[in-house]
Design a protein that fits this description.
Order of helices and strands of chain A: HHHHHHHHHHH
Structural class of chain B: alpha/beta
Number of strands of chain A: 0
Oligomer: heterodimer
Largest interface: A-B, 41 and 51 residues
Helix content of chain B: 25-40%
Number of helices of chain B: 8
Order of helices and strands of chain B: EHEEHEEHHHEHEHEEH
CATH superfamily of the largest domain in chain B: P-loop containing nucleotide triphosphate hydrolases
Shape of chain B: globular
Number of domains of chain A: 1
Largest sheet of chain A: none
Structural class of chain A: mainly alpha
Number of domains of chain B: 2
Number of helices of chain A: 11
Largest sheet of chain B: 6 strands, mixed
Strand content of chain B: 25-35%
Number of strands of chain B: 9
Radius of gyration of chain B: 21 Å
CATH topology of the largest domain in chain B: Rossmann fold
């Protein structure tokens, strides 16, 4: 239990306490009004706790990178080597995957694997963000959502920087600079919203089920292979290809593949689809998190 | 919850109406998704014997500007829990709560300290957590370093601080931000003698400036010295509330009368 005091003795009266009171019938208008007041208060708190969010992000980046320039270098070298290995292996294994040569395949892989890494590591980080700040949450009032938010912000900064750096490294391999790159900020914003929603859901589940991490690792691995990142969508016959669109992460990954690998502006419908999924996921994550937020301190 | 910058001297700064806080004691403290899934598949009912108890019940309490309130009671009476409700760490299960003013919880020192960061950065982080603007905190930090006498270590990561240095810094920050409502949970009694003396003088100064002070303490002498009003909690309910000397006499009589250890 979260109480510092030893539990108060249950006397007869409290032992026979009825279960949760029956919720009163609440009209839709009242619901909307209360949802609005929750959002308004969160916006006010966002403003009030901006300093904390900036501090959390800055301290993490500082711990990670400022101590040594090598810190940032490692975050580059690691995915670069990883993708290099994968590019080598897969281009040998499945020769001419989708008709791509090894260099082109490397760029294709880079375009999909970078946003995926961002998504997966943000979700993993958010999962433990509340437990890690347990000490803080129990000692002082803080809006709890700032912790997953800080995690996603840190990851998005790392993601953006490595995207730029790796793109420059990929230049000699044939990565083309085109006007389509101007669409990248929007694609990054959309995947951040989607990731934030997923992160809020994962953080909530993890607070109540501590073994969620094990499921998450396996789940993310499966999700990775189900998403056309190491293979192209034309891996499946034309009449089955629609199945990829059931995967909520695919529109986001596809945006990056079109922008970076195909050097084209993504079609408007793809942006629309990604926007809808991003807003929907963020909304779902936010409401799930808010519905449990008050209980979190008691379950840490 | 509303925060208003100005309030006249007779306004309640803390107003609790019918506050109750229910704790659930869960059957297993580490609920697992695996078990939940197995229960779902096998259509097994999860053990429904979770016990609930009220850590606080029917707390009606108004603290006006200028009051110094002590919470007393035996262990487990709900003193610290009530403090945490006022600090908004615990959300009450029922009741209404209104707090006017910036709260500084001195419930545990050094909440939000990060060992990898320098002392100076920790001041900024702590200030942000207490709702202070970065610019204000930058103005205040020389005074903090001055009081702690640790200015040579300002750029040293906190993990190299001794526990005494750590505590001095935490205390200096918590008292430097001039809180309007100060919540103190017996965190004063540590450190060497000279620090304790220095700390006491400083906290009395903060007490004078604060709009309201709520102290949880087992040290009845301290309560008698510092607080003009005392609230006695028992099993999560307020059983007496009044001027300190009166309530302390009743409390001592009961504690010694029934031979319950305080």
């Amino acid at each position: 239990m979260a109480s510092v005091d030893s539990p108060a003795i249950t006397d007869d009266e409290t032992a026979t306490f009825p279960a949760a009171p029956v919720p009163m019938r609440i009209s839709l208008n009242q619901r909307l009004a209360s949802a609005r007041s929750v959002i308004v208060r969160d916006i006010a708190e966002f403003h009030e706790y901006q300093g904390v969010i900036v501090n959390l992000v800055a301290q993490e980046l500082q711990v990670r990178y400022q101590r040594s320039m090598l810190g940032f270098l490692w975050t580059l070298v690691n995915p670069a080597l990883m993708m290099g290995t994968q590019a080598l292996v897969f281009s040998r294994l499945f020769r001419g995957i989708g008709g791509m040569g090894p260099w082109e395949y490397a760029i294709f892989l880079f375009a999909g694997a970078m946003p995926w890494t961002f998504l997966a590591s943000s979700i993993t980080d958010s999962t433990t963000s509340l437990i890690q700040q347990e000490g803080l949450i129990r000692k002082i009032y803080v809006p709890k959502w700032i912790f997953p938010l800080a995690r996603v912000l840190i990851q998005s900064i790392t993601f953006t920087l490595s995207l730029i750096a790796l793109f420059i490294m990929m230049w000699p391999l044939g990565a083309t600079v085109s006007s389509s790159l101007l669409a990248l900020p929007l694609a990054i914003l959309l995947i951040c919203m989607f990731t934030m929603g997923m992160g809020l859901i994962a953080a909530t589940i993890h607070t109540f089920f501590r073994d969620f991490g094990h499921f998450l690792t396996v789940g993310l691995q499966a999700w990775y292979f189900l998403t056309p990142i190491i293979y192209r969508a034309d891996f499946l016959p034309t009449n089955e290809r629609w199945k990829f669109w059931l995967n909520p992460a695919y529109p986001f990954i596809r945006l990056f593949q079109i922008i970076i690998h195909e050097s084209q502006w993504p079609p408007a419908w793809l942006f629309m689809l990604a926007t809808c999924i991003a807003i929907g996921t963020l909304g779902a994550g936010y409401s799930i998190f808010k519905s449990q937020e008050k209980k979190i301190v008691f379950r840490l | 919850m509303t925060t208003s910058p100005e309030s006249t001297s007779n306004d309640p700064v803390v107003n609790l109406q019918g506050i109750g806080l229910k704790f659930m004691s869960y059957h297993d403290s580490h609920p697992s998704l695996k078990r939940a899934l197995i229960n779902l598949v096998l259509r097994r009912q999860p053990p429904a014997t979770d016990k609930a108890f009220w850590a606080l019940r029917d707390i009606n309490l108004t603290i006006r500007q200028g009051e110094r309130v002590a919470l007393i009671g035996t262990n487990g009476a709900g003193k610290s829990t009530l403090l945490k409700v006022m600090a908004r760490i615990y959300e009450p299960t029922e009741g209404q709560m209104e707090i006017r003013g910036r709260i500084a919880p001195m419930i545990e020192m050094g909440a939000g300290f990060h060992p990898e960061l320098t002392g100076q950065r920790n001041i900024m982080l702590n200030g942000a957590l207490m709702g202070m603007k970065a610019a204000t905190m930058r103005e205040k930090s020389p005074a903090i370093w001055d009081w702690t006498g640790l200015s040579d270590f300002a750029e040293l990561p906190l993990k190299y601080y001794s526990s005494g240095m750590f505590q001095r810094l935490a205390f200096a920050i918590a008292t430097e931000i001039e809180p309007e409502i100060l919540l103190v949970d017996e965190s004063l009694n540590a450190g060497d003698a000279s620090f304790v003396e220095k700390a006491k003088a400083r906290i009395l100064n903060v007490f004078d400036k604060a709009k309201a002070v709520v102290v949880v303490s087992h040290d009845l002498g301290l309560v008698r010295e510092l607080c003009d009003r005392t609230i006695w909690l028992k099993k999560g309910r307020i059983i007496a509330d009044g001027p300190t000397p009166e309530i302390l006499d009743q409390y001592c009589a009961e504690v010694h009368g029934t031979a319950t250890a305080a």
